[in-house]
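User: Can you help me understand a structure? I only have the sequence.
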Amino acid sequence: MATAMLLLACQGNTFNPKWIEDKAPEEFSIRFETTKGQFDLRVYRAWSPQAADRLYQLVKHKYFDYAIFYRVTADFVAQFGSSNRMLTSQWMSYPVLDEPVLHSNKRGTITFARAGKDNRGSDLFINLSDNTKLDTTEHLGVRGYPPLGEVIQGMEIVDQLYDIYGEDLMQETDRMYSDRNGFMQAFPGLDYVKKAYLVE
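Assistant: Let's start by predicting it. Here is the structure, written out as tokens:
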């Protein structure tokens, strides 16, 4: 346990604004190695070009290493993001603008979460069921959540992510940012990304 906590504390905190100039390939794959096992995503730039570019940049520069699955709700979504407040703030000073929904939020698709207009770019969720209502949901002045890719291998791993706390942890994210290790100890069992990287 102590080793795991040491690793969690070592999450990177560097950011270079030049990274946001990177353009993603038209299609690319990402492997997420988690505490439950690994799963692979395939991202399609045509579905949401700006979001695909951002995800490519984030993974290329190790943003999701040690990211916590802090919102796992059965038959809805598995949401995750970095607990490094400074790093998240640096990336989100260049937010991803809103785009139209070109592909439905079907089971296995991955989508950026947001907290308002033109506010994507850090946290992601994987749809655990067909959440087609998210294609047209009006929230904070924006219509719909556009997916940018899908799980192509390891969806059974995603289904195993720890979901006992459900929506409850959405009220505790400030604590996740301020005291990551304390947060993990207060809510034992939470899964996290060990590392995420681009694959051929």
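Now, to help you interpret it: The first strand starts at residue 27 and ends at 34. The helical segments are 2-9, 49-60, 85-92, 155-159, 173-178, 180-186. Let me know which part you'd like to focus on.
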